[in-house]
Structures are given as C-alpha cells and as structure tokens.
Design goal:
The chain is of the alpha/beta class and about 450 residues long. Helices cover about 25% and strands about 25% of the residues. It has 2 domains: about 210 residues, FAD/NAD(P)-binding domain (3-Layer(bba) Sandwich); about 170 residues, 2-Layer Sandwich (D-Amino Acid Oxidase, Chain A, domain 2). Strands 3, 4, 5, 6, 11, 12, 13, 14 and 15 form a 9-stranded mixed sheet that branches. A hairpin with a 6-residue loop joins strand 16 and strand 17. Helix 1 packs parallel to helix 6 and helix 2 packs across helix 3. Flavin-adenine dinucleotide binds next to helix 1, strand 11 and strand 15. It comes from Capronia coronata CBS 617.96.
C-alpha cells in the first residue's frame, strides 16, 4: 500500500497556495507530544482544531504530520460541495440499518451543513462559503424511477425525510427550476459550497496559533504495533520518531499502510474534477444560484457547484471513470488524469444547461484526487479496538464534506476524555469502529461504484 504520490498535479483550489503549504513549525521533529495527528486534510485539521479550541484547562501538545504539502490530498482537490444525502441512499440505509438509524444518518448530514456554516461564521473564515439549494436532477428513468418509488413508499410508511427536502415530480417544472435540459424529475434541499483548501488551511493556522506543531513533507512510515510500558505509541518517520499516548490517524485512503486492520476495509479510489469558466469576452451565461447533482444512470453522475465569480466546479465524469477499473479502483496516482475525462468536460455546460449554449465556457483547470472508499460504504470513526490511544477517522467514500466536521468533533472529545464512548456523541452507529465491523469480510465498494445496489 503506497504513501501519497510525490508529484501530484495542482487543483484549482491548490493553485492559490497558502504560506502553510510547506510549513514546518520547528526545524527538528519533536520527540514527544500528547497527541500526534497524521494527515493535514479536513479530518486531521478539524480534529486538531477541536482538540485545541476548547477554553480552559491546559491545551495538549499536538503535532500534525503531513506526507506532502499541507492539505494537498482529497480535501485540496475535491468538488467543494457540502452536499448532505437526504434521499438518494435513504432506502438502502433503511434496508441495512432500519428506519431510525437511516433517519439518523440523514439528519446527521443535514446538521453538518449548519455546523460548517457556524464554524465559518465563528472563525470568520474567508473561504467563499455559500449556503445553497442543491438540486438533484434525474436525466434517466433507470435511476429516477426507483429513487422516486422508494421515496414515495418510504414517505407513505412514515419515514421522516427532513422537512427541507422538496420533490419536483413534473418534468417541466424540474427543467424550469434546475435549468438542466431534459430533466425528468428533481429533488432540492439545503447544501453549501466552499473553497475547502482555504477553510482547512485556516483551521491549521488557528491550531498553530494555539501551539500546534505542523510538519509537512514528513510521511509517517509506521506506527508501533503496541504501546511502550508508559503507554506511548511510536510514530516513525524518515526524520525521526515521535512518542505519544494518543495518535489520530486521518490519512484517508492511505490508512492501510499504517494500520493493517484496514487493508481490506479502505481502498484508494481516484476521482476527477474540473473548473469551467466563460472566457473574458465570452457571452455571459446565466448565473446558477443552485448547486447540483446530475444523474445519468444508476451510478453515472456529476456534482457541481456554482461559484460567485461565475465559474463552475464539477466532479464526477463517471461515464469515463467507470469504463475501466484501473482508472479509479485501488489507484492512488493523483499526478495523472483519467483517460477521456477532459473530453467529457469539454462543452459540458453548453450541453447541459439552458442559456449556456453560446457562452464559450471552457475548462480552465482539471485534476484528480484520491478518495478512501470504505468496504461497507460507511466512514470508520473511533478508537481502534485492542489499540487504546489510536483513533481513526477515514473512509468517507467520496462524501466527506457533510460528515467530517462532526466526526472530528467527536474524535476530539474522545481524545480529550470528555466522553468515553461514541454512543455519547452524535456519530451514527454505522460509522463506529467495532470488532465485529472490522471482522466483516464483504467489500461492496467496487460493486456499488459499478452500479449495483449490493446489500451486506
Ligand atoms: C476529485 C474529488 C472530488 C470530491 N468532491 C467532493 C465533494 O464535492 N463533496 C464531498 O463531500 N466530498 C468530495 N470528495 C471527497 C472529500 O474530498 C474527502 O472525503 C475528504 O477530503 C477527506 O478528507 P480527509 O482529511 O479524510 O482526507 P485527505 O484530504 O486526503 O487528507 C489525508 C491527508 O493525509 C496525508 N497522509 C496520507 N498518508 C500519510 C502518511 N503516511 N504520513 C503523513 N501524512 C499522510 C495525505 O497526504 C493527505 O494530505 C471528493 C474527492 C475527490 C478526490
């Protein structure tokens, strides 16, 4: 299982680098810390932030280790869409976990949109955060019909979808509301868009202000198999080792190289996104006030945010990505594009959106990034059974933005000792790391991505 690639391509977000990108707080690596956090993406940064921001008491010493530039993993190369899943996977969640847990999963994600907003407001983060309405548009009946049927059936049985969710059944209205050509139906609900790299580097900067030590370009090579007699784990890097009683592993897709327990639980999955803009002098296109998912088939979809500068960031291109497993599955090379994806995004807005036909809109930036796909499609959050003091939050399966803040807040409370168990937090039980879950052998990530709806 490889470490992050040495030479990743820049994304649009990363093309405005922060002065933290190559930051090392101290020349030498500290030898001791209360907490070592591995990974400086959203998961690592938000955990460190939550560990340190609490008023009162002595702040723990926190060292954040990052293999490459700060926040240059999936968080620095994603679609910027904080999109709670309020309906699309609800029926499979209901089948797998029962209606109450399915509702809990949905409302957790919905609440995360508000929590991110509160964080941005409280910290006054300059990160282009916008509260939007996400419109989920269906262009193909193979995916529209079962989704709508499940929604109606569940509603009739008393399943509690959030009140904010609005269903548009009439194709004419769906096309009118969304602006997407050929829409068959649509759902809409509150979501958000953000410049993820700016948000997360702001959190890292706050942590440094509270005394954290950030060490970029310091890949962790291993974590000891057991703690020493004083209960400290050894975190080994090429620049030396650090001993700490608590280690938070927020290394996303790369976690199996550090914790073999996750060898068959989290697999790297390469995704692609791009930025599209109307060139200077081009015909102005209508501003999109919504963010989107656009579904073309059972597993073919794109997700899209509209930025206040008029540009669009869109990710997905599953029609190309899924053509060949080698394009994405177990692929951690974010130095290369996915074949056919650039052509796919060519003329994208003109093809799909009313009013954009003569805009001349074109791709300005295109990039890949590595997601961590979970074997049962649920993130892995909590203290590792049998390894007291090792905490994990990873495997967000391409859907971290409406989940990570809450998970990081919970991990920080565990690490600080404010709570003993995740059951005392808001984290839905399917996310918890348990012995039983770690023992499960099924891996449905590939099958799910390839279009079927496997059940565990
Ligand atoms: C193209 C693309 C588009 C996406 N779009 C969206 C979207 O619109 N909405 C959404 O919700 N989600 C999206 N995602 C998923 C989202 O980006 C992730 O869920 C989220 O960023 C995960 O954050 P993280 O901090 O866990 O992982 P990362 O951001 O990947 O951070 C992990 C960090 O750990 C570091 N690391 C790894 N191994 C080591 C090691 N051994 N030593 C030290 N450091 C190490 C990595 O270098 C990396 O910086 C997208 C992902 C991609 C790739």
């Amino acid at each position: 299982m490889p470490l992050p690639h040495d030479n990743p391509m820049p994304s649009y977000w990363l093309s405005f680098p922060s002065d933290l990108s190559k930051h090392r707080t101290t020349e030498e690596l500290p030898q001791e810390a209360d907490v070592v956090v591995i990974g400086s993406g959203y998961s690592g940064a938000a955990t460190a932030y939550n560990l340190l921001q609490k008023d009162g008491g002595k702040k723990p010493t926190v060292v954040i280790l990052e293999a490459r530039d700060a926040c240059s993993g999936a968080t620095g190369r994603n679609g910027g869409h904080v999109l709670p899943d309020l309906y699309f996977n609800a029926s499979s969640y209901e089948k797998r976990f029962g209606p109450r847990t399915a509702e809990e999963l949905t409302s957790f994600e919905m609440q995360q949109v508000i929590e991110v907003k509160k964080l941005v407001d409280r910290e006054q983060i300059d990160c282009d955060f916008e509260l939007t309405r996400a419109v989920g548009v269906f262009l193909d009946n193979r995916v529209a019909a079962p989704t709508i049927a499940a929604y109606k059936d569940m509603k009739a049985r008393g399943y509690q979808f959030p009140d904010d969710l609005h269903f548009i059944a009439d194709p004419k209205k769906a096309e009118q509301v969304s602006g997407v050509k050929g829409a068959l139906a649509a759902f809409s609900h509150t979501a958000a868009s953000v410049w993820p790299y700016k948000m997360v580097t702001h959190l890292l900067r706050r942590c440094l202000g509270w005394g954290a030590n950030l060490q970029t370009h310091t890949p962790v090579l291993s974590i000891s198999d057991a703690p020493d007699a004083a209960g400290r784990w050894s975190v080994r890097t090429a620049r030396g080792q650090i001993r700490a009683k608590k280690v938070v592993v927020a290394a996303n897709a790369y976690i199996p190289s550090l914790l073999p327990e996750f060898g068959d639980k989290i697999v790297p999955a390469r995704g692609i996104a791009c930025r599209i803009a109307v060139p200077d002098g081009g015909k102005p296109a209508p501003h999109l006030n919504n963010s989107y998912t656009i579904r073309y088939g059972p597993q073919e979809y794109d997700y899209l945010i509209s930025r206040t500068d008029g540009s669009i960031v869109v990710g997905g291109a599953k029609q190309k990505v899924l053509l060949n497993d080698a394009n994405w599955h177990n692929n951690s090379d974010d130095s290369q594009l996915i074949p056919g994806a650039a052509e796919y995004f060519d003329g994208y807005m003109q093809r799909l959106f009313h009013g954009w036909e003569d805009s001349g809109a074109q791709v300005t930036h295109i990039w890949t990034g590595i997601m961590g796909y979970s074997s049962d499609l649920m993130p892995w959050v909590g203290e590792l059974p049998g390894k007291p003091g090792i905490y994990v939050l990873a495997g967000f399966t391409g859907h971290g933005m409406p989940r990570i803040l809450g998970c990081a807040t919970a991990i920080a409370s565990l690490v600080r000792g404010d709570v003993q168990y995740l059951s005392e937090t808001k984290i839905p039980p399917p996310f918890w790391i348990t012995k039983d879950r770690l023992r499960m052998k099924n891996n449905i990530a590939r099958e799910y991505m390839a279009g079927s709806r496997p059940s565990l």
